[in-house]
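Write out this protein's structure.
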Amino acid sequence: MRIVAGIYRSRLLQAPPGMATRPTSDRLRETLFNVLAPRIQGAAFLDLYAGSGAMGIEALSRGAQLATFVERAAPALKALRANLQALAITDGFRVHPGSVASFLRSAGSSKPKPERHEVVFLDPPWEAAQEYAATLDLLGGAASGLLAANALVIAEHRRKSPLAERFGKLQQTRLLEQGDAALSFFSAME
């Protein structure tokens, strides 16, 4: 894995050992960030099920102001922290070790206001199909306070396992398919 573009372009990233984590391909990451280009500069990027951190680090490389990583698997957290250290990234990020559901529940109910994100990316293990609906339901409901105005929520999933078009306030607005993977884009509707 490597960073596709930006200030860390072509730098290599570690992936957690084993098959428990499935990194997003460089090609799919490049496609996604080409779509996100107009909104990434200065944005707060929330990387759920962060794995090695490749998505959030790519966002930082391309000018995001903040990347928040949420990951609970110890090998993935180790690789994520190693990647941040190898690239000498010392600020502009937060790492939340723990489950996505607990992060969304606690951050969504924080007072006075939670940190708001312009871009949210989620890529749970493909085998954990229930994680998609649970996470998107929270983002479209109880944790919607984490979303900035006009925020974009993107879910990477199996192309052959389409997601519902609506989760609470979130409405699917776009679908990109590449190989076995698909990216579903959601926007908050009132």
